[in-house]
Amino acid sequence: MINADIQNYNDHLELSDKAIADNLANIINENLTATESKIWHAHPVWFIDGNPVVGYSKLKDSVRLLFWSGQSFDEPQLQVEGKFKAAEMRYKHVDEIIEQDLKRWLKKAESIQWDYKNLVKRKGLLERLK
Fold first, then answer.
1. Of 20, 50, 85, 126, which has the fewest beta carbons less than 10 angstroms from its beta carbon?
2. Which segments constitute the YdhG-like domain (predicted)?
3. In total, how many domains does the chain have?
4. Is the Cβ–Cβ distance between 48 and 60 less than 8 Å?
5. 105 falls within a domain
6. 46, 110 contact by CB (below 8 A)
7. Which stretches of the chain are DSSP H helices?
8. Inside any domain, residue 129
């Protein structure tokens, strides 16, 4: 079941973007059962032991799916995002979501994690958790 705050976020998107967001949220929830989900920095994010692992946000022309440790997944479809270890996939239509790819990435999100939870405490130094 989708967290009520996340469903509210999705419900305020345009219909095509809502379809993408609802699909992403459902697949994430089905495959990351040991997570906490909430709106964090104004976007839906899933956490394992307080560490952000996956989330999505509405961009001008797409919905961006972000994996905080995604650069370590060895998945060429995911694009580098930012200066740390994050990687993303952007969707303009719900049909672009390939469920088997997303499930594989989610499995990797559970087993490959960098410690974003303590990034500020470590003054910007990332350490590998798993």
1. 50
2. 18-109
3. 1
4. no
5. yes
6. no
7. 4-11, 15-31, 99-111
8. no
Tokens for 89, please give them: 């996939």
Question: Helices 4-11 and 15-31, interaxial angle, to 10°?
Answer: 160
Residue 121, in any domain of the structure: no
Identify whether 124 is part of a domain.
Answer: no
Residue 129 has pLDDT above 80, yes or no: no
Burial 111-122 (b: 16+ CB within 10 A, else e): ebbbbbbebeee
Residue range(s) defining the domain that contains residue 44: 4-111
Q: How many CB atoms lie within 10 A of CB 126?
A: 15
User: In sequence order, what are the residues at sequence separation of 6 or more whose Cβ sits closer than 8 angstroms to the Cβ of residue 73?
Assistant: 67, 87, 105, 108, 109, 112
The predicted model scores a pTM of 0.90
Write out pLDDT tens, residues 41-79: 999 999 998 999 999 999 999 999 999 999 999 999 999
